[in-house]
C-alpha cells in the first residue's frame, strides 16, 4: 500500500517533466550577420546569432551552409557539438570557389569547451569547409 501511494505521488512530478513549457525553437530570434552566395549561386553560407529559451535563455553565434532558396535552420550548424553554446564569435564566411568555403572565427579555449569545439563540419554538399581559428584579441 505504501509503495502504491509513493507511485501515485511521484507520477504527477514525472509527467510535469515531460511537458514543454514554451521551449520551442520556433520562437528563437535569429539575426543574420553575414550571408554569401557561392560563386555559382547554388549555395548560401551564413553567419548568424540566435537567442531564445525564455527564462533559462541562450545566446550563441554560429554558421550555416544550405542550398539557395532553403530557409536558415539555426540548429544546422557548422561548429560545435552543443548547438546552443556560445563558444564561437566574430564568425566570417568567404567562398574560395564553388567547392571551397572558408569559415573564420574566434573560439573559447577553456578546457570546458575542448569537446564541444572539436566537432566541426568538414564537408557538406561536396563543399570542403576550411575552418580558420582567429587569434584571440590581445
Structural Rg = 20 Å
Termini separation comes to 67 Å
As laid out across the biggest beta sheet, the strand order is 4-5-7-6
Supply the helix-strand structural class. Answer: mainly beta
Strand content: 35-45%
Q: What's the number of extended β-strand segments?
A: 7
Task: Kindly give the count of domains.
Answer: 1
Report on this structure:
The chain is mainly β and about 140 residues long. It has one domain. Helices cover about 15% and strands about 40% of the residues. The protein is built from two helices and seven strands; from the N terminus they run αβββββαββ. Strands 4-5-7-6 form a four-stranded mixed β-sheet, with no helix packed on it. Strands 1-2-3 form a three-stranded antiparallel β-sheet, with no helix packed on it. A hairpin with a 5-residue loop joins β1 and β2 (about 45-50). The longest helix has 16 residues, at about 1-15. About 20% of the residues are buried. Mean pLDDT is about 85; it is low at about 10-20.
Quick structural gist:
The chain has helices at residues 2-17, 114-117, and strands at residues 29-37, 43-52, 58-67, 88-97, 100-107, 123-124, 127-133. It is mainly beta and 138 residues long.
Amino acid at each position: 500500500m505504501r509503495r502504491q501511494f509513493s507511485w501515485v505521488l511521484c507520477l504527477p512530478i514525472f509527467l510535469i517533466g515531460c511537458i514543454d513549457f514554451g521551449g520551442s525553437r520556433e520562437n528563437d530570434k535569429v539575426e543574420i550577420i553575414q550571408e554569401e552566395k557561392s560563386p555559382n549561386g547554388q549555395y548560401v553560407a551564413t553567419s548568424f546569432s540566435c537567442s531564445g529559451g525564455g527564462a533559462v535563455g541562450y545566446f550563441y553565434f554560429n554558421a550555416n551552409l544550405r542550398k539557395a532558396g532553403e530557409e536558415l535552420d539555426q540548429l544546422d550548424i557548422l561548429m560545435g557539438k552543443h548547438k546552443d553554446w556560445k563558444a564561437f564569435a566574430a564568425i566570417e564566411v568567404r567562398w574560395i570557389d564553388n567547392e571551397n568555403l572558408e569559415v573564420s572565427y574566434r573560439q573559447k579555449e577553456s578546457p570546458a569547451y575542448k569537446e564541444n569545439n572539436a566537432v566541426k563540419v568538414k564537408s557538406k554538399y561536396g563543399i570542403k569547409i576550411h575552418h580558420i581559428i582567429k587569434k584571440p584579441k590581445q
